[in-house]
Every structure is written in structure tokens, then in C-alpha cells.
Design a protein that fits this description.
Elements: E1 15-19, H1 26-36, E2 41-45, H2 46-50, H3 61-83, E3 88-93, H4 98-107, E4 113-119, H5 122-131, H6 139-147, E5 155-158, H7 164-178
Parallel strand pairs: 1-3, 1-4, 2-3, 4-5
């Protein structure tokens, strides 16, 4: 009888920063990382903070922009709080420009961060958007031109060719190798 596979060593309590467009698969990947890491990981998602508003009740583009900016600001403030704690964190983000980039990295100062680019080709992003009633049509396409601009990743994964679990395993192996 073959020996049972040995479990992978636990992941260090680091930060895994996932950056990619809407519908790229970051949330599914974050949950797979939580299941496979071997330690408790917090899942900090930008969507959690921007979706705190009841968007149907927000009137007009100016108010919508103000509410969205507040959600993003609160997310970055909460990241600093999470980073001050003892747990590893999977950050599910989309960094749209230098201000968000600066705020994200400032919030994570003092923690070892593994910066992961989460990529997916546009046709797949558009199909995923159409399949999800909570997604605004064309959002990922508008973000795609900005989210990866001027970013240097430690590792990149493509969610169109691998499952969330396969991507998680690749990321965890990469991190364990770096430890």
C-alpha cells in the first residue's frame, strides 16, 4: 500500500496580494488559498468595502463616485489594521492607478508581501461578466488597460487555463520555495 501523501508545510503568516480586473477570479482564488494554506488566512476584499453601499439607493454619478472613493479609502485603512495583526492575509484587490498602489503598499508596510498578478483574457472576462448578474457590463474591459500597468509581480497566474485550486497550489509552492 502506498504511503499517504505528506501535507505541505504550513504557509508563513505573510500577505498574498492578488491584483487583477473584475471577474478575473481573484475571490475564487482567495478562497482556494484559504482552504489550502495550512494556516488561518484573512480574506480582505475590495468588493466587501465598495459593496457596503446599497447602490440602487445611490443617486447620480457624483454621489456614486463619492461613495466608491469612500469604500476604497476604508478598504486601505482596514488593510493597515489587518496587517498589524498576527494572521496571514489574502488581499483581493484591483489596483487602478498610482494613488491606490501607494495606499495599498503603505497599508502593508512591515509585512512580507507576495505580489501576484491575476490575469485572464478579455473574451473570458466578458463571458464571466455576462454570467454574473452583479457585474456591470464592460467593467473588466475598462479596468484591463490600467490594472497591470507599471506593476512588477512576484508571480502571475492565468485563471483561464487553471482552476482556482491549481492557481492556489502554484502560488503556495512559490511562497514556500521563497521561505
Amino acid at each position: 500500500m502506498p504511503a499517504a501523501p505528506r501535507p505541505s508545510p504550513p504557509l508563513p503568516a505573510d500577505v498574498i496580494l492578488l491584483n487583477g480586473t473584475s471577474s478575473a477570479g481573484k475571490s475564487s482564488l482567495a478562497r482556494a488559498l484559504q482552504r489550502r494554506a495550512g494556516i488561518p488566512l484573512l480574506h480582505a476584499s475590495l468588493d466587501t468595502f465598495t459593496d457596503m453601499f446599497l447602490w440602487d439607493a445611490v443617486t447620480g454619478p457624483a454621489e456614486r463616485a463619492r461613495c466608491h472613493a469612500a469604500g476604497v479609502d476604508h478598504f486601505h485603512r482596514a488593510l493597515a489594521m489587518f496587517a498589524a495583526g498576527p494572521f496571514g492575509i489574502v488581499v483581493d484587490h484591483l489596483i487602478l492607478g498610482p494613488e491606490w498602489n501607494t495606499a495599498t503598499w503603505a497599508a502593508l508596510v512591515g509585512r512580507r508581501v507576495h505580489f501576484i498578478g491575476v490575469r485572464c483574457p478579455l473574451p473570458i472576462l466578458l463571458a464571466r461578466e455576462r454570467a454574473r448578474p452583479d457585474r456591470q457590463a464592460g467593467l473588466a474591459e475598462r479596468q484591463l488597460a490600467h490594472v497591470h500597468r507599471n506593476q512588477t509581480y512576484d508571480l502571475e497566474v492565468d485563471t483561464s487555463v487553471a482552476t482556482p485550486e491549481e492557481c492556489a497550489d502554484r502560488i503556495l509552492a512559490f511562497i514556500r520555495q521563497r521561505a
